[in-house]
Amino acid sequence: MSYETNSILIVEDNKDLLNLLKINLSDQGYEIFTAKDGIAALDMYHNHHPDLIILDIMLPKMDGFDVCKSIRKENQAVPILMLTAKAEEVDKVLGLEIGADDYMTKPFSIRELLARVKAIFRRMHVNNNGDEDENKVLEFDELVLDTAKRKVTLNGNTIELTSKEYDLLLLFFSNPGKAYSREELLNTVWGYSYEGYSHTVNSHINRLRSKIEEDASDPHYIRTVWGVGYRFADSEEKKNYA
User: How far apart are CA 32 and CA 22, in angstroms?
Assistant: First the structure.
């Protein structure tokens, strides 16, 4: 399967790392755009509308957090993979909370980064080229998910979700009542397997709940299964409107 038509914006102020990423990703057939500071990153994003953004946090002029927030105000769907040299957990969680789909901590393996990029585009390809027979509308109480349009509504109002939030909700919606561990969600939704990243799932679940739940502290749709992970409500848990 070829992904040569996909484009990537790499935002990194370290010239050596930027060139390394550009060379390796170009070798995979991707069209590459680059920026060395936050202001230039936004200009490149608006001019080229890349399919994926690899975004460093520590940047001149405007940091990666602000770049991510700015892009998310305009586009919830474009995948954003953040790079950070910081070890503090709060920085990683903050990146996820403001809309990044994932992050990698420097130093990282180029092979792992390439694997994650391929997984992102593989999932995008599947989502954009699914069989028409698989297009369907899923409904549970006031929540509706239209797979053909990749559109989610709550009480008739459109809910803007990032790509990973949508993928998570679709998985849950398609398997009501089934409990998933954090590791299973990582493997299924993110498309790669690794240990120690359960907080990635937790952050996405929290963000998703904040958008679809009436009370995120007492969720109706996405339930916590203590000691296991999460599940979507089943038919017996539908609201009684009688």
Answer: 7
96 and 141 co-located in one domain? no
With beta carbons less than 8 A apart as the criterion, state whether 192 and 164 touch.
no
Following DSSP, what letter does each residue of 215-227 receive, concatenated? STTS-SSEEEETT
Identity at 81, one-letter amino acid code:
L
User: Residue 231 — left, alpha, or beta (φ > 0 → left; ψ -120 to 50 → alpha)?
Assistant: beta
Same domain, residue pair 156 and 171: yes
- pLDDT, tens digit, for every residue of 49-93? 999 999 999 999 999 999 999 999 888 889 999 888 766 555 666
Q: What is the DSSP letter of 26?
A: H
pTM, rounded to two decimals: 0.73
Q: Which domain holds residue 228?
A: 132-237
Q: Are strands 229-232 and 222-225 parallel, antiparallel or unpaired?
A: antiparallel
CA count, 13 A, side-chain hemisphere, 1: 11
Taking 50 as the threshold, does the pLDDT of residue 1 lie above it? no
